[in-house]
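Q: For a teaching session next week I want to show students how multiple molecules come together into a single three-dimensional assembly. I've collected the sequence lines for a complex. Could you give me the predicted structure tokens for the whole thing so I can convert them for display?
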Amino acid sequence: MMAQALPAVRRYGIAFVTVALFIFLAATTNGFLSQANFRNILDQQSALLIAASFATITMIAGGFDISAASVFVVSPLFALQVENATGDAALALVVGVAVGLVVGVANGLVVTALKVNSFIATLATSFMVFGAGFLISDRSVLRASTDAYPAIARTRWWGITTGAWIAAAVVAVAWVLLSRTRFGRHVYAAGGNAEAARLAGVPVARVKTITFALAGAAAGLAGVVSSSRSLSALPSDDFSFVFGVIAAVVVGGTSIAGGEGAVWRTVAGAFFIALMVNGFNLHQVDPIWQRVIQGAVILAAVSIDSWTQRRPT
Amino acid sequence: MNHAEALVSVRNVSKRFGATQALEDVSVDFEAGRVHGLVGENGAGKSTLCGVVLGAHAPDAGAVWMDGSTLRLDSPAAGADRGLVGVAQELSLLPAMSVVDNIVLGTEEHWGPFVKDRANRRRVAALVAEHGLEVSLDARVGSQSVADQQKVEILRALGRRSRLVVLDEPTARLASHEAVELRGTVRRLAERGVAVVYVSHFLDEVLSVADTVTVMRDGRIVRTGPARLESHASLVEGMTGRQIGEVFPPKPPAPADDAPVVLRVEGLGSAGAGFSDVSLQIRAGEILGLAGLVGAGRSEVAHAVYGAHATAAGSVEVCGHRLSGRVEDALAKGVALIPESRRDQGLMARRPVRDNTTLPHLGRFAGRLGMRTGEEQEAASRACDEVGVRAQSVLAPVAALSGGNQQKVLFARAVLGEPRLLIADEPTRGVDVGSKRAIYEALNRMARSGCAVLLVSSELEEVIGTCHRALVMRRGRLVAEHAGSEMTEERLLADAFGPGNGAGGGRGDPALAEGESP
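A: Of course. Below is the structure for the complete assembly, covering every listed component.
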């Protein structure tokens, strides 16, 4: 019985754990089971989910993109400059995504054509992009000048914000792209064994470049959604966003080595971390201790994953 | 002849893994100063036996004796402490470190926390001089040839005062002349009084290096005896319980003279060194062998035809269509390649059998709303059944399959494309004799259905046993062609060596000749 249950537990472990945490919090925590709380969690996770679902695809293709943080910080600065100048929120949204796309394509070309290790390449582009953010914003906070810009993420449809709807749509697109299309198969192949993929006719360099480009565009969209929620954007050189993204991807069980993983895993990983943080807040755990515990939980999740992968069935 | 004492005696050892009886009542002696060859099909129990001796597996029954007492080892590290060392198929060296640092790693001479570099270097130099194994002490290991790396690995074993060394498929990754060099190394190792256990699929190699040979089948020992009393045929018979002729199924009928030409290669030359002026044709239904020494350029030609190796001259036509030199184009025009190394060039080990089978053919299952996975799965299952892949499900990861079945997955991938030209590069390497026959049958089936087959093989017996016609390559050029009964091991060997080295006979040594030729 146990022997048959094990592969399923291993395969869907993160989903079980997330559901278990949900039930635990529902049973023990006042204020957890409320619409307002759920809406809040969804809202807070929307930007991260947008960036993380495509970061998952990059990682499966064998790439490691840490430029998501810089794009997340800088794309809304470009978007808000456009919005302030033209008053056109739709154009601002397009520009924000385009900034991410351009950075992503550049990352992809540096990684595939110049064959630079993707961690180093995206670290370098991150600095350049952060710098561009200070230049475009003249080192000051930018605020939305119209009502249309905040409306991008704050409008409510059936009680749920458009930010969350956008996140759901992006997750769905990434999910389908990875699990149901030829491109998705090529992503797994390129990350699993690049030489074998090449000999099977997979255009490995093109596939990898596209994963970086899409991840960049997604990070740009995440930045716009986040700034639309907060009505403003601030230049910085803060890498913390990408650590949240990577934590969600890795806790979900996608392999850093490439070739394995899934978008649903990242969604589960993101909600696992979000529920944990939510539980801490509701129990009024000191934020400093929250960090310590959060780090320990991520370490435990990854260790368990690596341990189960090692054991033959 | 001196009577060597048994250094390690395995007595009535049995070992079971789950439902598999890996070893059953095995008894064998490994003697100091002797090279003991160990042969058998995959799964015959060779690795398990070595594992028991080295301390990686504890026997369920029976015992291993050494120095007059039973040996109880709970780990390979404990075995190493007693002087029992394994040199694995995959080298375990640090490529960025020097030869000296690799050899002394873990046993460095030191003064407090400081490594005494000069003392270590002296120690290694003495070791090298003592055993006559030439290596450049200060070179980075990664910059050395595989043969030299293997020497480093062996020196590392010697530096730990090994008394028994297990070499598991030591020549699997070596070029022919390197394999000969290694043979000398192994003999010297034995002369120093070390007991050497030599595990290999290359039977001729075992016959030429070993003093004693043990043949295993199904976890039991068939026989142990002096190597000089064995022949290639007797070993195969012992390993399989079959006559050697039965390994090869009857060839499909040779193509008629007016059968259409499927592959036409004209004056093909590689970019850079590699091969030049290669011209050949294959007709529908024909199996053409490409023989020659390792390093002669055969794989490069195969890859160039497929569009995976850059060319500087010449043309490739398949059924009258010129190929552009890109893999996608070759696939679209009906060319399939089964690459030499299934692990490095063929399979995504952790992905399902299905994904591995259909990877080059995904366009066929692409619908407007993504992949039609049901159809894909059915096609993959059919292709796998056709070539006899034994797997629980096409959704199981390829890594869960045996080596022979993994190789068949690559055949299923090729079959699924219904190719007009199949290029198979060493398709039976590292595959046991039983699976070999299944692979030859798959090749024959392809040929009977009108496919042209290009078989690259280092085993002359395989070329003769399966091909209608054989071309021989030497140093990047086609040097000879033999068909039908003209294909003999002597002639192919003579052409592979080049002029002046003559036909070496059945026990000819291609690599040695290669080393001597100008």
